[in-house]
From TrEMBL:
Residue ranges annotated for the N-acetyltransferase domain, each copy included: 5-190
Record bears the keyword Transferase: yes
Keywords for this protein: Transferase
Organism: Corallococcus macrosporus DSM 14697
Record-level Gene Ontology MF annotations: acyltransferase activity, transferring groups other than amino-acyl groups
Matches recorded under InterPro entries: Acyl_CoA_acyltransferase (IPR016181), GNAT_dom (IPR000182)
Name of one Pfam family that matches: Acetyltransf_1
Protein name: Acetyltransferase
């Protein structure tokens, strides 16, 4: 029997603590070279204070199975940019980008701060369900989700494309090569998108 998952907005501080625990297990520096290539990884390490402040602006989305948090998708409104100084160059870049011929800054968008599914629960549609819940929860407030993905993170790149994200810019910095991707909620969904 397939496990049953509940996907909701974060409801309490304990869930934020569980997000941090799952994040720790999936940081790039915590994984082997093989895991980095086949399983994907997260790059930025947050702290509880930053997550609490982000949550106060807009709650993140989490998935539970039998009461255990097994996946998360962090909501990072543009107003939260100061909470993760390591991401300031990303936000500065976003300020300069165009999307469909218009300045990206002219759209109502937020940043997917990070998305992660516990290794034991991958391949069961949770990535797509997290994003679908984001859309349900925030579609009256935002038009787009924007994020950046390491182009080396093949699993994440494929998953974002499957959901409906399109690459709007690529660049290289001192650490990696990045794809800036956006999901326009007004666009028709790709034929292979779930939900």
């Amino acid at each position: 029997m397939e496990p049953t998952y509940t996907v909701t907005a974060v409801r309490h501080r304990g869930e934020l603590e569980h997000i941090l625990a799952l994040q720790q297990k999936n940081l790039k520096q915590a994984l082997s070279a093989d895991e980095l290539h086949t399983q994907g990884f997260v790059t930025v390490q947050h702290d509880l204070s930053a997550l609490e402040r982000m949550h106060a602006m807009a709650p993140s989305i989490v998935a539970h199975q039998d009461g255990a948090l097994v996946a998360y998708a962090l909501t990072m409104p543009r107003e939260a940019r100061a909470l993760a100084p390591v991401l300031e160059p990303m936000f500065t870049l976003f300020d300069s980008l165009q999307f469909r011929g218009k300045p990206l800054s002219g759209f109502r968008f937020y940043v997917m701060g990070q998305i992660c599914v516990d290794k034991a629960h991958r391949g069961r549609g949770l990535f797509d369900r997290l994003y679908q819940q984001h859309r349900e929860h925030f579609r009256d407030r935002y038009d787009l989700i924007v994020t950046e993905v390491s182009v080396r993170n093949h699993r994440s790149m494929r998953a974002h494309e499957r959901v409906g994200f399109e690459t709007i810019h690529t660049y290289r910095d001192a650490t990696d090569e990045w794809a800036v991707v956006a999901w326009d909620w007004a666009s028709p969904r790709p034929p292979n998108a779930a939900g």
